[in-house]
Amino acid sequence: MGALSHLRVLDLSRVLAGPWSGQILADLGAEVIKVERPGVGDDTRAWGPPFLKDARGENTSEAAYYLSANRNKRSLTIDFTQPEGQRLVRELAAKSDILIENFKVGGLAAYGLDYESLKAINPRLIYCSITGFGQTGPYAKRAGYDFMIQGLGGLMSLTGRPEGDEGAGPMKVGVALTDILTGLYSTVAILAALAHREHGGGGQRIDMALLDVQVACLANQAMNYLTTGVAPRRLGNAHPNIVPYQDFPTADGDFILTVGNDGQFRKFAEVAGQPQWADDPRFATNKQRVANRAELIPLIRQVTVFKTTAEWIGLLEQASVPCGPINDLAKMFEDPQVIARGLAIELAHPLAGRVPQVASPIRLSETPVEYRNAPPLLGEHTDQILSEVLALTADEIQRLRTAGVL
Length: 406
Hints:
Elements: E1 8-11, H1 17-27, E2 31-36, E3 51-53, E4 59-63, H2 64-67, E5 73-77, H3 83-94, E6 98-101, H4 115-121, E7 126-131, H5 146-152, H6 155-158, H7 177-198, E8 204-209, H8 210-216, H9 219-228, E9 245-250, E10 253-258, H10 262-271, H11 286-291, H12 293-304, H13 309-318, E11 323-325, H14 329-334, H15 336-340, E12 344-349, E13 353-358, H16 382-388, H17 394-402
Parallel strand pairs: 1-2, 1-6, 2-5, 6-7, 7-8
Antiparallel strand pairs: 3-4, 9-10, 10-11, 12-13
Helix pairs in contact: 1-7, 7-8
Protein backbone atom coordinates (compact mmCIF):
# COMPACT_ATOMS: atom_id res chain seq x y z
CA MET A 1 0.00 0.00 0.00
CA GLY A 2 1.39 3.36 -1.01
CA ALA A 3 1.95 6.23 1.42
CA LEU A 4 -1.13 8.04 0.09
CA SER A 5 -3.37 5.02 -0.49
CA HIS A 6 -5.95 6.40 1.94
CA LEU A 7 -6.64 9.40 -0.31
CA ARG A 8 -8.87 10.06 -3.30
CA VAL A 9 -7.95 12.75 -5.83
CA LEU A 10 -10.35 14.25 -8.35
CA ASP A 11 -8.16 15.42 -11.24
CA LEU A 12 -9.98 17.91 -13.46
CA SER A 13 -6.74 19.22 -14.98
CA ARG A 14 -5.41 18.91 -18.49
CA VAL A 15 -2.11 19.18 -20.35
CA LEU A 16 0.93 18.95 -18.02
CA ALA A 17 1.26 20.88 -14.73
CA GLY A 18 -1.93 19.52 -13.12
CA PRO A 19 -1.65 16.00 -14.55
CA TRP A 20 2.01 15.86 -13.45
CA SER A 21 0.97 16.59 -9.87
CA GLY A 22 -1.82 14.03 -10.13
CA GLN A 23 0.60 11.39 -11.40
CA ILE A 24 2.98 11.99 -8.48
CA LEU A 25 0.10 11.54 -6.02
CA ALA A 26 -1.04 8.42 -7.91
CA ASP A 27 2.48 6.95 -7.87
CA LEU A 28 2.47 7.44 -4.10
CA GLY A 29 -0.67 5.36 -3.82
CA ALA A 30 -3.55 7.82 -4.05
CA GLU A 31 -6.65 6.88 -6.00
CA VAL A 32 -6.68 9.47 -8.81
CA ILE A 33 -9.83 9.88 -10.89
CA LYS A 34 -9.11 11.77 -14.11
CA VAL A 35 -12.26 13.60 -15.24
CA GLU A 36 -12.28 14.22 -19.00
CA ARG A 37 -14.55 15.57 -21.71
CA PRO A 38 -16.54 12.82 -23.48
CA GLY A 39 -15.17 12.04 -26.93
CA VAL A 40 -12.24 14.45 -26.59
CA GLY A 41 -10.46 14.05 -23.28
CA ASP A 42 -7.24 15.70 -22.18
CA ASP A 43 -5.85 18.03 -24.88
CA THR A 44 -2.58 16.09 -24.91
CA ARG A 45 -4.27 12.91 -26.14
CA ALA A 46 -4.12 14.58 -29.58
CA TRP A 47 -0.64 16.12 -29.20
CA GLY A 48 1.14 13.82 -31.63
CA PRO A 49 2.87 12.35 -33.46
CA PRO A 50 4.42 10.36 -32.01
CA PHE A 51 1.67 7.99 -30.91
CA LEU A 52 1.94 4.68 -29.07
CA LYS A 53 2.09 1.80 -31.55
CA ASP A 54 0.25 -1.50 -31.26
CA ALA A 55 1.67 -4.99 -31.86
CA ARG A 56 1.35 -4.52 -35.64
CA GLY A 57 3.29 -1.27 -35.58
CA GLU A 58 0.20 0.84 -36.23
CA ASN A 59 -0.49 4.08 -34.38
CA THR A 60 -2.99 3.89 -31.54
CA SER A 61 -5.05 6.83 -30.27
CA GLU A 62 -2.61 7.44 -27.39
CA ALA A 63 -0.12 10.31 -27.91
CA ALA A 64 3.28 9.96 -26.27
CA TYR A 65 2.79 13.36 -24.62
CA TYR A 66 -0.36 12.18 -22.83
CA LEU A 67 1.36 8.97 -21.77
CA SER A 68 4.07 10.94 -19.93
CA ALA A 69 1.80 12.35 -17.19
CA ASN A 70 -1.18 10.07 -16.52
CA ARG A 71 0.08 6.76 -15.14
CA ASN A 72 -1.78 5.06 -12.27
CA LYS A 73 -4.99 7.04 -12.85
CA ARG A 74 -8.51 6.01 -13.81
CA SER A 75 -10.35 7.90 -16.55
CA LEU A 76 -13.96 9.01 -16.18
CA THR A 77 -15.76 10.99 -18.87
CA ILE A 78 -18.31 13.58 -17.73
CA ASP A 79 -19.79 16.56 -19.56
CA PHE A 80 -20.14 18.97 -16.68
CA THR A 81 -21.57 21.69 -18.86
CA GLN A 82 -24.79 19.72 -18.32
CA PRO A 83 -26.58 19.91 -14.95
CA GLU A 84 -26.44 16.16 -14.40
CA GLY A 85 -22.72 16.19 -15.13
CA GLN A 86 -22.24 18.94 -12.56
CA ARG A 87 -24.18 16.89 -10.03
CA LEU A 88 -21.90 13.90 -10.62
CA VAL A 89 -18.73 15.96 -10.15
CA ARG A 90 -20.13 17.48 -6.95
CA GLU A 91 -20.97 14.03 -5.60
CA LEU A 92 -17.45 12.83 -6.42
CA ALA A 93 -15.95 15.93 -4.78
CA ALA A 94 -17.97 15.20 -1.65
CA LYS A 95 -16.21 11.83 -1.46
CA SER A 96 -12.72 13.09 -2.35
CA ASP A 97 -9.81 14.49 -0.36
CA ILE A 98 -8.15 16.55 -3.08
CA LEU A 99 -9.28 18.28 -6.27
CA ILE A 100 -6.86 19.55 -8.92
CA GLU A 101 -8.03 21.90 -11.68
CA ASN A 102 -6.41 24.26 -14.18
CA PHE A 103 -9.35 26.12 -15.68
CA LYS A 104 -9.19 29.86 -16.24
CA VAL A 105 -9.90 32.01 -13.18
CA GLY A 106 -13.63 31.78 -12.42
CA GLY A 107 -14.16 29.18 -15.14
CA LEU A 108 -15.70 26.54 -12.88
CA ALA A 109 -17.95 28.91 -10.94
CA ALA A 110 -20.54 28.86 -13.72
CA TYR A 111 -20.96 25.12 -13.11
CA GLY A 112 -21.03 25.30 -9.33
CA LEU A 113 -17.64 23.58 -9.18
CA ASP A 114 -15.59 26.42 -7.73
CA TYR A 115 -13.91 26.16 -4.34
CA GLU A 116 -16.60 27.93 -2.34
CA SER A 117 -19.36 25.76 -3.82
CA LEU A 118 -17.52 22.51 -3.17
CA LYS A 119 -16.26 23.60 0.26
CA ALA A 120 -19.90 23.92 1.32
CA ILE A 121 -20.44 20.20 0.69
CA ASN A 122 -16.97 19.00 1.73
CA PRO A 123 -15.17 21.30 4.21
CA ARG A 124 -12.19 18.91 4.27
CA LEU A 125 -11.57 19.23 0.52
CA ILE A 126 -8.12 20.45 -0.55
CA TYR A 127 -8.75 22.35 -3.78
CA CYS A 128 -5.66 23.06 -5.88
CA SER A 129 -6.08 25.60 -8.70
CA ILE A 130 -3.29 25.89 -11.25
CA THR A 131 -3.30 28.82 -13.68
CA GLY A 132 -0.81 30.83 -15.68
CA PHE A 133 -0.88 33.88 -13.45
CA GLY A 134 -2.78 33.00 -10.26
CA GLN A 135 -6.16 34.05 -8.92
CA THR A 136 -5.20 37.72 -8.42
CA GLY A 137 -3.36 40.48 -10.25
CA PRO A 138 -3.84 42.25 -13.60
CA TYR A 139 -3.01 39.10 -15.63
CA ALA A 140 -5.22 36.72 -13.63
CA LYS A 141 -7.73 36.10 -16.43
CA ARG A 142 -5.10 35.48 -19.11
CA ALA A 143 -4.33 32.01 -20.37
CA GLY A 144 -0.77 30.93 -19.65
CA TYR A 145 1.32 28.31 -21.45
CA ASP A 146 4.79 27.13 -20.48
CA PHE A 147 6.64 28.66 -23.46
CA MET A 148 5.07 32.07 -22.89
CA ILE A 149 5.84 31.93 -19.16
CA GLN A 150 9.48 30.98 -19.82
CA GLY A 151 9.76 34.20 -21.80
CA LEU A 152 7.76 36.51 -19.56
CA GLY A 153 9.24 35.00 -16.39
CA GLY A 154 12.84 35.71 -17.34
CA LEU A 155 14.14 32.18 -17.98
CA MET A 156 14.68 32.68 -21.70
CA SER A 157 16.77 35.79 -21.06
CA LEU A 158 19.25 33.48 -19.31
CA THR A 159 19.13 30.60 -21.79
CA GLY A 160 20.92 30.60 -25.15
CA ARG A 161 24.22 31.65 -26.68
CA PRO A 162 25.80 34.90 -25.48
CA GLU A 163 25.41 38.08 -27.49
CA GLY A 164 28.02 38.22 -30.23
CA ASP A 165 28.17 34.44 -30.72
CA GLU A 166 26.82 32.81 -33.86
CA GLY A 167 23.22 31.78 -33.19
CA ALA A 168 22.92 34.16 -30.24
CA GLY A 169 19.46 34.84 -28.87
CA PRO A 170 17.00 33.76 -26.20
CA MET A 171 16.10 30.07 -26.10
CA LYS A 172 13.46 28.08 -24.27
CA VAL A 173 14.32 24.96 -22.29
CA GLY A 174 13.88 21.73 -24.27
CA VAL A 175 11.06 20.42 -22.06
CA ALA A 176 8.09 22.29 -20.55
CA LEU A 177 10.09 22.87 -17.40
CA THR A 178 7.81 25.53 -15.89
CA ASP A 179 4.85 23.15 -16.13
CA ILE A 180 6.86 20.35 -14.52
CA LEU A 181 8.09 22.59 -11.70
CA THR A 182 4.56 23.88 -11.13
CA GLY A 183 3.36 20.28 -10.85
CA LEU A 184 6.06 19.59 -8.28
CA TYR A 185 5.32 22.73 -6.24
CA SER A 186 1.60 21.93 -6.41
CA THR A 187 2.29 18.49 -4.98
CA VAL A 188 4.31 20.00 -2.14
CA ALA A 189 1.48 22.44 -1.41
CA ILE A 190 -1.09 19.63 -1.43
CA LEU A 191 0.97 17.56 0.99
CA ALA A 192 1.37 20.60 3.26
CA ALA A 193 -2.40 21.15 3.21
CA LEU A 194 -2.92 17.48 4.06
CA ALA A 195 -0.56 17.78 7.03
CA HIS A 196 -2.55 20.80 8.24
CA ARG A 197 -5.83 18.94 7.84
CA GLU A 198 -4.60 15.82 9.57
CA HIS A 199 -3.54 17.90 12.58
CA GLY A 200 -6.97 19.33 13.24
CA GLY A 201 -7.38 21.81 10.39
CA GLY A 202 -9.89 21.65 7.57
CA GLY A 203 -9.48 21.79 3.82
CA GLN A 204 -8.18 24.83 1.98
CA ARG A 205 -7.69 26.50 -1.38
CA ILE A 206 -4.29 26.33 -3.06
CA ASP A 207 -3.52 29.05 -5.61
CA MET A 208 -0.65 27.99 -7.90
CA ALA A 209 0.62 30.10 -10.80
CA LEU A 210 3.11 29.16 -13.50
CA LEU A 211 4.57 32.67 -13.41
CA ASP A 212 5.09 32.53 -9.63
CA VAL A 213 6.88 29.21 -9.94
CA GLN A 214 9.04 30.39 -12.83
CA VAL A 215 10.18 33.47 -10.91
CA ALA A 216 10.82 31.44 -7.74
CA CYS A 217 12.94 28.94 -9.67
CA LEU A 218 15.31 31.55 -11.03
CA ALA A 219 17.14 30.85 -7.75
CA ASN A 220 20.70 32.19 -7.73
CA GLN A 221 20.12 34.16 -10.94
CA ALA A 222 17.26 36.08 -9.34
CA MET A 223 19.48 36.83 -6.35
CA ASN A 224 22.33 37.84 -8.68
CA TYR A 225 19.99 40.55 -9.99
CA LEU A 226 18.39 41.53 -6.68
CA THR A 227 21.73 41.99 -4.94
CA THR A 228 23.33 44.01 -7.76
CA GLY A 229 20.55 45.59 -9.80
CA VAL A 230 22.23 44.22 -12.92
CA ALA A 231 20.21 41.77 -15.05
CA PRO A 232 22.24 38.59 -15.72
CA ARG A 233 23.15 37.98 -19.35
CA ARG A 234 23.07 34.81 -21.41
CA LEU A 235 26.24 32.75 -21.02
CA GLY A 236 25.40 29.73 -23.15
CA ASN A 237 26.48 26.68 -21.16
CA ALA A 238 28.68 28.67 -18.78
CA HIS A 239 27.80 29.40 -15.15
CA PRO A 240 27.46 32.97 -13.84
CA ASN A 241 29.06 32.23 -10.46
CA ILE A 242 31.46 29.30 -11.02
CA VAL A 243 34.39 28.85 -13.43
CA PRO A 244 35.15 26.47 -15.11
CA TYR A 245 31.64 25.08 -15.17
CA GLN A 246 30.57 24.48 -18.79
CA ASP A 247 31.11 22.39 -21.92
CA PHE A 248 34.50 22.03 -23.60
CA PRO A 249 35.51 20.57 -26.98
CA THR A 250 37.35 17.27 -27.19
CA ALA A 251 39.06 15.33 -29.98
CA ASP A 252 35.77 13.60 -30.84
CA GLY A 253 33.01 15.85 -29.49
CA ASP A 254 32.40 17.70 -26.26
CA PHE A 255 32.23 17.05 -22.53
CA ILE A 256 31.04 18.90 -19.45
CA LEU A 257 33.44 20.05 -16.75
CA THR A 258 31.91 21.15 -13.44
CA VAL A 259 34.62 22.39 -11.11
CA GLY A 260 32.92 23.32 -7.84
CA ASN A 261 35.85 24.43 -5.67
CA ASP A 262 39.50 25.43 -5.74
CA GLY A 263 40.73 21.96 -4.77
CA GLN A 264 38.97 20.44 -7.75
CA PHE A 265 40.45 23.11 -10.01
CA ARG A 266 43.96 22.23 -8.83
CA LYS A 267 43.31 18.55 -9.59
CA PHE A 268 41.95 19.45 -13.02
CA ALA A 269 44.98 21.61 -13.81
CA GLU A 270 47.28 18.71 -12.91
CA VAL A 271 45.36 16.25 -15.10
CA ALA A 272 45.40 18.80 -17.93
CA GLY A 273 49.18 19.07 -17.67
CA GLN A 274 48.95 22.70 -16.59
CA PRO A 275 49.62 22.65 -12.81
CA GLN A 276 50.76 26.30 -12.92
CA TRP A 277 47.14 27.38 -13.47
CA ALA A 278 46.27 26.57 -9.85
CA ASP A 279 48.91 29.03 -8.58
CA ASP A 280 48.33 31.72 -11.16
CA PRO A 281 46.91 34.76 -9.30
CA ARG A 282 44.33 35.14 -12.08
CA PHE A 283 42.93 31.64 -11.55
CA ALA A 284 43.83 30.44 -8.03
CA THR A 285 40.38 31.08 -6.52
CA ASN A 286 36.90 30.85 -7.95
CA LYS A 287 36.42 34.60 -7.46
CA GLN A 288 39.52 35.22 -9.57
CA ARG A 289 38.49 32.68 -12.18
CA VAL A 290 35.07 34.32 -12.58
CA ALA A 291 36.74 37.73 -12.96
CA ASN A 292 39.20 36.34 -15.52
CA ARG A 293 36.83 33.96 -17.29
CA ALA A 294 37.68 35.39 -20.72
CA GLU A 295 41.37 34.51 -20.27
CA LEU A 296 40.99 31.08 -18.66
CA ILE A 297 38.32 29.47 -20.86
CA PRO A 298 40.31 29.76 -24.13
CA LEU A 299 43.34 28.23 -22.39
CA ILE A 300 41.28 25.24 -21.27
CA ARG A 301 39.78 24.84 -24.73
CA GLN A 302 43.24 24.70 -26.25
CA VAL A 303 44.07 21.74 -23.99
CA THR A 304 40.84 19.70 -24.05
CA VAL A 305 40.82 19.19 -27.84
CA PHE A 306 43.81 16.83 -27.63
CA LYS A 307 41.96 14.00 -25.84
CA THR A 308 38.69 12.22 -26.56
CA THR A 309 35.61 12.64 -24.39
CA ALA A 310 36.07 9.16 -22.93
CA GLU A 311 39.72 9.84 -22.15
CA TRP A 312 38.93 13.07 -20.32
CA ILE A 313 36.13 11.49 -18.32
CA GLY A 314 38.29 8.53 -17.37
CA LEU A 315 41.20 10.68 -16.20
CA LEU A 316 39.09 13.26 -14.38
CA GLU A 317 36.95 10.67 -12.60
CA GLN A 318 40.13 9.07 -11.25
CA ALA A 319 41.10 12.51 -9.92
CA SER A 320 37.62 13.09 -8.41
CA VAL A 321 36.91 16.04 -10.69
CA PRO A 322 33.20 16.14 -11.64
CA CYS A 323 32.62 15.80 -15.37
CA GLY A 324 30.42 13.96 -17.84
CA PRO A 325 29.33 13.41 -21.44
CA ILE A 326 26.57 15.19 -23.33
CA ASN A 327 24.16 12.36 -24.13
CA ASP A 328 21.21 12.30 -26.43
CA LEU A 329 18.21 10.39 -25.05
CA ALA A 330 19.25 7.14 -26.76
CA LYS A 331 22.64 7.20 -25.06
CA MET A 332 21.12 8.39 -21.79
CA PHE A 333 18.77 5.40 -21.56
CA GLU A 334 21.73 3.10 -22.34
CA ASP A 335 23.85 4.60 -19.54
CA PRO A 336 24.70 1.94 -16.94
CA GLN A 337 23.67 4.17 -14.04
CA VAL A 338 20.28 4.90 -15.62
CA ILE A 339 19.81 1.17 -16.21
CA ALA A 340 20.91 0.31 -12.67
CA ARG A 341 18.39 2.76 -11.21
CA GLY A 342 15.58 1.25 -13.29
CA LEU A 343 14.48 4.54 -14.82
CA ALA A 344 12.90 2.93 -17.90
CA ILE A 345 9.96 0.66 -17.14
CA GLU A 346 7.02 -0.88 -19.00
CA LEU A 347 3.39 -1.38 -18.04
CA ALA A 348 0.64 -3.53 -19.54
CA HIS A 349 -1.52 -1.58 -21.99
CA PRO A 350 -4.88 -2.63 -23.50
CA LEU A 351 -4.06 -1.37 -27.02
CA ALA A 352 -0.32 -1.86 -27.34
CA GLY A 353 0.32 -4.81 -25.03
CA ARG A 354 3.07 -2.85 -23.29
CA VAL A 355 3.71 0.86 -22.88
CA PRO A 356 7.10 2.37 -21.96
CA GLN A 357 7.28 4.74 -19.02
CA VAL A 358 9.89 6.79 -17.16
CA ALA A 359 10.03 5.63 -13.55
CA SER A 360 9.36 7.94 -10.64
CA PRO A 361 12.57 9.26 -9.03
CA ILE A 362 11.00 8.92 -5.55
CA ARG A 363 12.52 6.05 -3.57
CA LEU A 364 10.85 5.32 -0.22
CA SER A 365 12.08 2.45 1.93
CA GLU A 366 8.76 1.56 3.58
CA THR A 367 6.10 2.74 1.12
CA PRO A 368 7.70 2.48 -2.33
CA VAL A 369 6.10 3.79 -5.50
CA GLU A 370 3.81 1.24 -7.14
CA TYR A 371 3.16 1.07 -10.87
CA ARG A 372 -0.39 -0.22 -10.89
CA ASN A 373 -1.65 0.63 -14.35
CA ALA A 374 -0.80 2.40 -17.58
CA PRO A 375 -2.22 5.81 -18.49
CA PRO A 376 -5.92 5.06 -19.03
CA LEU A 377 -7.84 5.08 -22.27
CA LEU A 378 -10.42 7.84 -22.55
CA GLY A 379 -13.34 6.92 -20.28
CA GLU A 380 -11.88 3.48 -19.61
CA HIS A 381 -13.13 3.41 -16.01
CA THR A 382 -16.34 5.44 -16.27
CA ASP A 383 -18.74 2.63 -15.39
CA GLN A 384 -16.43 1.23 -12.72
CA ILE A 385 -16.00 4.57 -10.92
CA LEU A 386 -19.68 5.53 -11.02
CA SER A 387 -20.75 2.16 -9.68
CA GLU A 388 -18.03 1.86 -7.02
CA VAL A 389 -17.84 5.44 -5.75
CA LEU A 390 -21.36 6.75 -6.36
CA ALA A 391 -23.23 3.41 -6.27
CA LEU A 392 -24.97 4.06 -9.60
CA THR A 393 -26.70 1.11 -11.22
CA ALA A 394 -25.99 -0.09 -14.74
CA ASP A 395 -29.36 1.31 -15.87
CA GLU A 396 -28.58 4.74 -14.37
CA ILE A 397 -25.18 4.80 -16.06
CA GLN A 398 -26.73 3.82 -19.40
CA ARG A 399 -29.33 6.58 -19.08
CA LEU A 400 -26.61 9.16 -18.46
CA ARG A 401 -24.63 7.86 -21.44
CA THR A 402 -27.68 8.03 -23.70
CA ALA A 403 -28.27 11.61 -22.55
CA GLY A 404 -24.71 12.53 -23.53
CA VAL A 405 -23.58 13.22 -19.96
CA LEU A 406 -20.89 10.51 -20.07
